[in-house]
């Protein structure tokens, strides 16, 4: 009988050895999208505050109207301190990078039917670009060399 190492050498790089440690559950998402609205702070039933926001993520080719399809994701965050204040201050349209734990929850509605919902719990975020105000479009976008629709944010993020 051949050992796994012997088989691996004979098969070449297509066969690899696997770890003997038990698998760990992993359900994460990475998103780059724009805020649907300003994040909102709401209390939970346990008295802890949660920040909730929706992120619109564009994908696929542009349609006849020039727009891409958008998927909307609801995100919850328990971030504290300065990062909490930063997240709450971000305006609608801010482009963000978000890493979140993903979980599918099933619940029963009032009419007795079952519904499934994707829940995302933010682990980290980075604000990539804020939308630029309409008053600034005529001067700063052209002079600074940035996209006229957004203002870059360098070094802004959370963990």
From TrEMBL:
Superkingdom of the source? Eukaryota
* Disordered: annotated span: 1-26, 127-159
Keyword DNA-binding recorded: yes
Tell me the keywords, alphabetical order: DNA-binding
- Supply the PROSITE patterns for this chain: SSB
- Put simply, this protein is called SsDNA binding protein
Q: Matching Pfam families, A to Z?
A: SSB
UniProt xrefs under InterPro entries? NA-bd_OB-fold, Primosome_PriB/ssb
Q: Give residue spans, biased composition: Polar residues.
A: 138-147
> Which Gene Ontology molecular-function terms are recorded?
single-stranded DNA binding
């Amino acid at each position: 009988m051949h050992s796994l190492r012997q088989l691996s050498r004979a098969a070449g790089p297509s066969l690899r050895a696997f770890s003997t440690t038990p698998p760990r559950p992993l359900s994460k998402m990475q998103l780059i999208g724009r805020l649907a609205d300003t994040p909102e702070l709401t209390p939970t039933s346990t008295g802890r505050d949660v920040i909730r926001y929706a992120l619109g993520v564009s994908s696929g080719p542009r349609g006849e109207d020039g727009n891409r399809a958008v998927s909307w994701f609801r995100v919850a965050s328990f971030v504290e301190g300065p990062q909490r204040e930063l997240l709450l201050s971000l305006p609608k349209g801010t482009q963000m990078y978000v890493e979140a734990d993903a979980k599918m929850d099933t619940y029963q509605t009032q009419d007795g039917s079952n519904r499934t919902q994707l829940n995302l719990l933010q682990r980290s975020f980075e604000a990539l670009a804020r939308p630029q105000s309409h008053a600034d479009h005529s001067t700063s976008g052209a002079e600074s060399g940035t996209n006229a629709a957004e203002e870059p944010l360098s070094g802004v993020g959370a963990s």
